[in-house]
Design goal:
The chain is α/β, with parallel strands linked by helices. The protein is about 45% helix and about 15% strand. Helix 1 crosses helix 6, helix 3 packs parallel to helix 4 and helix 4 packs parallel to helix 5. It binds NADP nicotinamide-adenine-dinucleotide phosphate.
Length: about 260
């Protein structure tokens, strides 16, 4: 039986680092999932035959079904399931179209839950689920409201799932990084260069996440900056936490 990894968002900044980490494991294939087939083929060229490109749109039920059908056909053992694909957009609640809202919720919330449900049947002792949430899951974040709420969903689902899985040998870890230097970040808003406090590399996040997941932890936080943030937002009233956040991002939102 083949031992595989399912990695979504494999072509993105963090996805590529997870791919590098997974290729160090004793596995036969990494099913690399994303929409852009060309980029997936480039990954295979760069990292070799263990990379199996799986072009699929996870905002669409068809994309999820495609992975389910592949699993039914090949019946592998899923050693790692990494829900890394994610969509983010900064803006006022009114700046989002209905279609954008649908896509963000589908990719960030529905896809991980559905894929988990499908994949657990192919897992066993030692299998690891990694849900790439975010430090923005720790607090309500105006102007990245939908993204932060979707990441809070992912974190909460992941940790409760881990409790439900107790005794099976399968674990689920919520990975909660702060800002990571990838293309997801809007580097300029309204002509202003954005500062990202506590910015870390994708390599550091992926390494720590895999290490923590292997230890069976239900949460992975890779930097002291985010660990402090996590503690502070637990202690302070959420209204105050939001005020502090707004003070930090307010300058980017005004057109002046
Ligand atoms: N960057 C940060 O500061 C940061 C901080 C905390 C958490 N995170 C989380 O880390 C994860 C990875 O982020 P990143 O920074 O690496 O983002 P990224 O560079 O923008 O990569 C996003 C990946 O998701 C894939 N994707 C997007 N929509 C998809 C869809 N509908 N179906 C299938 N795949 C889709 C993209 O490929 P295609 O476009 O080809 O589909 C790409 O591979 C995300 O979950 C994000 O929320 C990021």
């Amino acid at each position: 039986m083949k031992k595989i990894v399912i990695l979504t968002g494999a072509t993105g900044g963090l996805g590529r680092e997870f791919l590098k980490q997974m290729l160090k494991e004793e596995i036969d294939e990494v099913w690399a999932v994303a929409r852009n087939e060309q980029k997936l083929l480039q990954l295979r060229e760069e990292y070799g035959d263990k990379v199996t490109p799986v072009p699929a749109d996870l905002s669409d039920l068809e994309g999820i079904k495609k992975i389910e059908n592949m699993l039914m056909e090949h019946r592998p053992r899923v050693a790692f399931l990494i829900h890394n694909a994610g969509l983010a957009k900064m803006g006022n609640y009114n700046d989002f179209s209905i279609e954008e809202i649908d896509k963000i919720i589908n990719v960030n919330c529905k896809a991980p839950v559905m894929l988990t449900k499908i994949c657990i049947a192919y897992m066993g002792r030692g299998s690891r689920i990694l849900n790439i949430s975010s430090a923005s899951a720790f607090q309500p974040n105006p102007y990245i409201n939908l993204y932060a709420a979707s990441k809070a969903f992912e974190r909460s689902y992941s940790r409760a799932l881990n409790a439900e899985l107790e005794g099976t040998g399968i674990t689920s870890a919520a990975v909660c990084p702060g800002w990571i230097d990838t293309e997801l970040l809007q580097k300029e808003i309204n002509g202003k260069k954005v500062r990202f406090p506590g910015l870390v590399t994708a390599d550091r996040v992926a390494r720590q996440a895999v290490r923590d997941a292997k230890k069976g932890k239900d949460m992975s936080v890779c930097s002291l900056y985010v660990k402090c943030q996590h503690l502070i937002v637990k202690i302070l009233p959420q209204r105050l936490v939001m005020k502090i956040w707004m003070a930090g991002i307010g300058k980017y939102l005004k057109e002046s």
